[in-house]
Predict the 3D structure of the following.
Amino acid sequence: MALTRDEFSNAEAFLAAHPAVRAIDLLLPDLSGVLRGKRVDKSDLAGVYQRGLFLPGSMFALDVLGGAVQATGLGFDEGDADRACVPVPRTLYPTPWLGPGIAQLQVQMLDHDGGLFYGDPRHVLGAVLQRYAARGWQPVIAVELEFYLVDVERTPAGHAQPPKSRYTGRREARTQVSSMADLESVSDILAEIKATCEAQGVPTGAALAECGPNQWEVNLRHVDDALEACDQAIRFKRIVKGVAHRNGIEATFMAKPYGDAPGSGMHLHVSVLDRDGRNVFASDDVLGNDLLKQAAAGLLDTMADGMAIFAPNANSYRRLRPELYVPMNATWGYNNRGVAVRVPVSGSVDRRLEHRVSGADANPYLVAATVLAGMLHGIEKRLTPAAPLSGNAYTQRLTAPRLPADWPTALARFGASAFMGEYFGERFVTLYELTRRGEMQDFNARLTALDYSFYLEQV
């Protein structure tokens, strides 16, 4: 995969247009999508474009709390060696919630020889896209992200809680799907999020109230560059969190912040353009043409292998509950939100697939890479999907494979997957599995209030 480098002339033009900028946040999303990096003075920016920002490769061996998993070999085994990180094109933007003096720029990691570092998720997606380019195809992606707005104060038990309504002063624990009253109560925050997205080149569509208390979904518009679409998703998550903090509350993309409310998902809408810019899935049939059905079959065939990507941490698996809009089996169908792969209502030229399994806590580059690889797997092998599902996907007796519903099972399936090794490379599969296992072991080793509640007096 050839790396497109951004030009410093673009940065010079940006700084000239934003003379108040004095520092730039250099952002490197890790395996979990957590932003790592440094803040540099604008006088240092030329050097970043010329030589790169030097960060250790162990940035991609971190658990979600920032601890390096030494078993990956990217820590002390190689002296915690630095690698150059170079700017990602078209990602230098102002950060309005931080004031006019701060901007941000995404970077991507190179290896010691100047090639692409295998552990950077952006490069993993880029390698999958090269397979599409070899066919003369270009995926088009739209990302939908759900999130909760929560109070900065926790409950006495340390749990998240909804913020108080600025209309009533009460904490609303009810569920009101698409409630306009709920939307009005935070309309200024949503408006600020949208304005900030415009300032950062993130094309947003509709915002709507979701099923949980102060849960929201924002749709990013379709983009014909999957890497850019995921760059935008990374910026969007930072925007939402930054704007929420500026307004005295918090935003979380945690998969399941409340035990009795729906979790937050990341849905991907995908179509594919040919060399002439035509959608290869276009069809008068609402279930699409043969290529769309083969792509759907590939997604279903590989879905269990990718579950460790779609559900990357311990909390992710708490989201997997029936009748809460989370698929439990590898199913597909038309206009059905209970299935894993949905063919949405559309015109004949706009046929696409919607992947509905991933949590909002997942890394968008890795989700997109897994989805696109699964589609190509089905097309290349000319797979045929099972019959599409209609009706309630949670109450029917399904013969479709059940998806891994716990972290250890998902990681074991991921690590042993020939499909993941073929598309992601064995070194990345090992790196990801070891990093996730390190976090899982650390999580399981910690005593919680539940340990005492269940066992202190009972056993």
Q: What stands out?
A: The radius of gyration is 22 Å. Residues 166 and 185 are 6 Å apart (CA to CA). The chain has 13 helices and 14 strands.
